[in-house]
User: Fold these one by one.
Assistant:
Number 1:
Amino acid sequence: MSHQVLQPRSLLTRRDPAWARDFEAILQAYEAAGGKVSALQSDRIASAVISGNRVLFVNEIPGVHIEAEEIPTGIRAHIRLDPGTKVEYPVHLCFGMVPREGLQEIIPVFEIGEEAEVGFLAHCTFPNALDLRHVMEGVIRIGPGATMRYTEAHYHGPHGGIQVLPTSRVVVEEGGRFENEFNLTHGRVGRLEIRIEVDVAARGVAELTAKAYGLGDDHIRIEEVIRLNGPDARGLTKTRVAVRDRAVGEVYTTAEGNAPGARGHMDCTEIVRGEAVARNTPVVIVRDDEARVTHEAAIGSVSRKELETLMARGLDEDEAIDIIIRGMLR
Amino acid sequence: MEKTDRPLLIVEDLSVNRPGAEVLRGVNLTLWPAEVHVLLGLNGSGKTSLALTLMGCAGYTPARGRILFDGEDITYLPVNERARRGITLAWQEPARFEGLLTGDYLALGVRGDGNGGPSVRERVEEALRAVALAPAAYLARPVDQSLSGGERKRIELAAVYAMRPRLAILDEPDSGIDVLCQDEIVRLIRRMADEGTAVLLITHRDEMAAAADQASLICGGVVVKTGDPEEVRAYFAQRCRPHEESLGAQPWEVRNGDAYKGVVTQRVCQ
């Protein structure tokens, strides 16, 4: 087990050929997944690059501490924000594996200090996956009045030979805010199982957005739980899933209104084509007569009217469907 | 309006059945190139059914009759094939698209000419300005529920204008839009005709007939009168409006439903 914290200048000076090969490969994959390599080269942007179980690069900035530790099958990371830190640019994280086979376990702990504010932009890229497992077991603690925005985009390549199994437990303390957006809309999904649980204290806010597009025999399972435990806590889940061919999309959302003034809403849209199957199971639990939780779901084919509107501009049916789905997943 | 010697659109004896009703019954209609043709009629008279049939929408396949566009029989062509021939439709209640930006939506039907003329972007911006929407404020807005009904209608009209179709079917472009903007819509319709687009303007507001070169009145799924817009407008105001007023503004309400159906299907006014 080793411990590494590499500063940007090491990017320029390190000469280990194996490291350089890994680094170049993962950066290529990172760019293919939509990441901006220039952000990783900036002293002003906190960042980390993880390939397999190797920590290739870490850049810290004042108030943002990133400790990463290699374990045999992945890494443990501890990401801390000092209280009151306002981070101007999102922290860039790159996780991935270039090999076709293997296991990557990411075990991160995020601690966002009181009144701190930060965004994360994570790209998870597995461009050659044939038989890969990517497991994440995250713990996130948002301090009082703090804000954390976490946007995660995945790219899994064209083969679908991957299992992505991220689990997160999140605590939002009083007046805190957590916004999470997960996107897997390009390339194949393979098997995706997201589970995220959020406990929200008084006046806290949690917004969870998940978007995925499954094809072939992809399997998407999204499970989100928001417990609105404190007075005036707010929670929203927004799920957008499109499945075609023989893919399966399953969305399980639970919102609990456990305190006066708690407000929760779950919004799920799934578009189904071909022999694909979509399911949505919302669970509403209210334990306080001054709380309110609502849900809406729409599952089915593309709206005929939307389709014909685009076709009336000259698009053929498949083009129109693609635009509608891409828009929904945008 | 400059007439050529061949009509752009000929609708012959067109009948369409919907579940439980014959919504169009032997419709005949002729449109000339670059003509603004207003189609008047009360709610439920068959105006929108005719629009959707002309566009080729699902569920509106004719049971009888035919549609000729520029001499070609398009009666059974799908929507996109009609669009490629130059027909398009602005829906009465336009669809909303999550995540699709207005600029991208308007660009869908636009082809840059590639000969030094306006670019796609320029056409899109021009179309927005034509419906009194500032491009800077709308290009990046999604065509979704965040738009008001009036904004969405204007964007629909802009999409049609940007496309420069040969035939634009505008289904009540004036409804749900503030009065000031209605003048702009009339100007845009005239502008479209001046630039070579024939417009089938569907409305139940007879004052819109002032924008037209030709008018038709539809009632009970039948075109009962075609001719000079002022004459048709006067006929509509005198013969149809009284029934609308006596039946109320919501003819589909249960208390008036049967009576209204009697008006529009049996044309009791005649």
Number 2:
Amino acid sequence: MSKTLALLHSQADGSLPKAALETLTAAAALGQPFDVAILGAGASAAADAVQGCGAAAFYTVDDPAVAQPRYATDAAAATALIQASGAEPVLAPGTSRFARSLPGDDDYPE
Amino acid sequence: MNGFQIVVCGSLVPDPLQTLEPVTTPQGPGLKNETMLPSVLDPWSAHALYEAANLAKQAAGSKVYLVSLGPKAKLQQLMMTVAQKVPFELVALDGSASGFTDAHGVAAALADAIAAIPGLDKSRLLVFGGCASASRDAGVTMQLVCERLGIRDFFAGVDEIKAAEDGSFAVLERIEGGEYLASTCKGAPAVLAWATGNLPEPPNNPQVGMANMRGVMPSLMKAKPTPAGVGGIAYEATEIPPQKRQTRIVKDASTDEIAKEIVEWINN
């Protein structure tokens, strides 16, 4: 385990939900280098708000397509963020948004 | 529109009123006396099945299928009760319904069985299932089925679906804070993982049972052996979570005392 990824999402108002902040704390507490990836409305501003968390790199998807929770767009954005970071394991909050989209975040033949 | 083809994924779980004791068997982890335990239709899947039947009633031309992965003999027992509830066509898969099976293997088996349903029309396809399972609360199987079928619309923790004349439908999904996320979808195909829905368990209807059993028995006869193992996972140990009672019973407390305690609890 060389690097961990804290995969988070913002809320409708652009802030990070409590569960996301707890995930960030857990990633930092591992004592390993970690990246932060955020998707959702105002993701860039949310990343700025936690810039002092000690992450090695920040990745964001801040686009109207992910402003609302939706399976296909969330899964695609999460895949892109995970691939961009290349870190593993991935820590993510167990919110309804990620409980919906992350299990399908995989490559299967159509 | 010609109605929906609603495929419900649902299988059996040990009756939750039984005492379950995890043990290690030569085939891997399991439950003590698993084959002897009485089974019920997984409660989450049951909600999905009742909602499917209700939707099929409202959208003329719809048909409900129940794709069920479980030991053939136990499925047969289960169908004696489930088949009396609502009309459906059974697609039986003969394999393990253990809570220790790997979700990826189960999803692959379910998706293959759905894709093989004769006359399946993806433009009318709605796949229903539970958002979790009473035997294993992974909450991922339906998403994996969705991906394997190449479907791009998925809804989790669903409590309501309302279909419109044009084939579009509105969905309510449970989210945090006791709220609902309301979505509209242009139409099938889609996968819906149900929470509890809003419908009660239908009463037994012998006529429905007779009609269903004509298809159930042949389906059980030709149920394919479906290996869905633990996916190479080695379980070091299994145990039932310790029971923790976090409530206490206080008799004769005054309203003021109760209010004071609630305020203290909130402030802390």
